[in-house]
Amino acid sequence: MSAVAGSLTDSTGTRIQISVVVPVFMGREWIGACLRSLQAQSLSPSLFEIILVFNGPDDGTEEAVFDFIRRSPGLNIRRVHCAKTSASAARNLGSEVAQGEWVTWVDCDDLISREYLELMILSARDGVVPLAQIIDQYPDGTRNPSSVINRSILEHEGHLVSPADFPRGLSFMTCKLVPTAVARDVPFDESLRSGEDVAMFAEMFSRYDFKFSLLPAFGGAKYFRLLRESSVSRQGDSFDFMVTQRLDVIASLNRSLRKCRPYARPLVRSFINSQASFVKNYCARHPEHVKEIGDTIAAHRFEYYPWNSLFESVQRLVIAYNFLPYADTGAMVTAKRIRSVGKPVDVIMHSMDNVRSSDTENMAISRPYVQFVGTVSGPAYFASPVAIEDFCRKGIEIVRAWEATGRSYTEVYSRAMWPASHFLAALCKLRDPKVRWIAEFSDPIRLTTTGEYRYSELPASGIFLEILEGVPSEIAAVLRENLDVYFWTEQLAYLLADQVVFTNENQMSSMLEYAGEGSRKLLSGKSKIDRQPTLSRLFYELESSDICLDSQRVNIGYFGEFYSTRGIGEIVQGLCGLSVGELSRLQLHIFTSDPKGAQERFVASNAGSRIEVTFYSQLPYLKFLNTLTHFDCLIVNDSMTSGTHSINPYLPSKYSDYVGSSAKIWALVEKGSVLSGLVHEYLSYVGDVAGAREVLKQLVSDATMRIQGH
């Protein structure tokens, strides 16, 4: 197991066989006893050296060491000073200057038995790491030889054990003899404030194949570990120790996992599981911190984290036909809803491969809370009764399979645009009336953006007949009035759900207006307005944008598509009335799925050659969030509904993303829309060219004031 060839070298032929590295930090009270235990070793003093690495302020320890050296001329003691106050840095420095072929670490407040070094070196050979007993010692002098760690060492029958079969042997820094070359090649991670031993030995095993020799332990080699109140292993229930420091260790272990050899992967993963158990325990005791912890873990974007271990139990079922990793606004909003609640969920979704691309990076948003995921396979269809029935039947089978493992749900949440979500949720409610069903609508289902009603005929058979036969007669009568997918999608929620969520008040008013008086009365006590969540700032910093903006200009961003009911025509026309000087201060950036087509349309307009416009393809969501933070102003616009709707029922989903950025918001609104009443720095009305021009002038004026420092 050499640093070059991966095998141990013979220990003969070297006068100094062992380097004992002792990090010393404020150790005056204990250093004498530690050195006396080294002085008493049965191994000849000529065969080992003691390297004292001072790594902190001197509390009189150095004077105590000088006195000891004067009284013990036969010991080979070297003193080294480490500029960094860190036990890991001290151990690494000790290994760097070590002259012995093997190195072991002893803390300055610990002791070793008389035969410790001799028994260890007798077992040292190629591919073997000798291991001693570890016995807890308390400040009053009492000792506990039956600790969990020590029992696990002595319970092994064979004297050669693979770390894969005894991972606990790698979970502590002391009691081992390691080739010096290997210790130099795999140093302790000096950025870690605890758990550095676990991280270092996991990395060592991932790169070097070796076995433990338990002969020293069986022979009586003992390491006495002093347990003090200030010991790392005795730290209290703090967020820093239980969460922050554990995640730092998990990050280090994940780095080892990415490059380790296959045989070591299960062991490294087990160490990650062990560190994650601290986080889980903290979450159980401090549920108020769960969301913060979930966001922090997600931000690390670990290759491996045992998400299913974060929570004790799952009682919420989320039904989202369209869910992550698919790159879709609806999928993203559902993920943000899950995060905003901060409770564990199981998810039933449908494969969207035929209609959506994937972006696994987005899963960081909800991943801490998502435990089981059941994906119904096959082509996705928006409102096909056959596809809805297939999703429902397969979804119910998934629920039954999970319940067979002990799952028990008290709440079901479903979200529609895609109608099938509410159909499956309704079946779950009928199967167990005690379950609380929360049904959310992102937009009106039946009503299109142009004010027409969608229609897709339902057969009175299959699951649709099951629903009719399973609901009370008065509900069945309502459903029979209109055997239509879209009608049922709304009515099932109105009639059966315990709570119906709308994203804005105009949406609710519009949907209830055409739903009828009965639905309005029914929903009076169970409807809720809940705007789409805004992510914490952390998610705006997970990705880095590669956009380059001119700081001397006002950079205006538009993210979205161009439809007959939504665009920025009034802004383009408004630019035509600006002076050359004003135009030179503005730069428009357009992100859309068809940048080439958008550019052609823009050039064909009057302003096409008078303002600098840059066109981009759509961005992955997390990069989109970071890109928002670079702009001076972001445009968000209402869909035009005048003449087709009594009120505007839509609230652009991007508004919730813009709010979390540092950019100012320019709202292009219809009078009376929900967007018109929300927080924004600039406002103009859809179709109002003069108003748009005034906003553009104001942007230039504000930028000038900012640059001049006013």
What is the number of E strands? Answer: 25
Rg: 34 Å
N-to-C span? 67 Å
Number of helices: 25
Helix content: 25-40%
Strands across the major sheet, in which order? Answer: 15-14-13-16-17-18-19
Oligomer state equals: single chain
Main beta-sheet annotation: 7 strands, parallel
| Uncertain parts | 2-14
Q: Which percent range describes the beta-strand content?
A: 15-25%
Number of domains: 4
Kindly list the characteristics that best describe this protein.
single chain; 710 residues; alpha/beta; Spore Coat Polysaccharide Biosynthesis Protein SpsA, Chain A; Rossmann fold; 4 domains; 7-stranded parallel β-sheet; 6-stranded parallel β-sheet; 25 helices; 25 strands; 38% helix; 16% strand
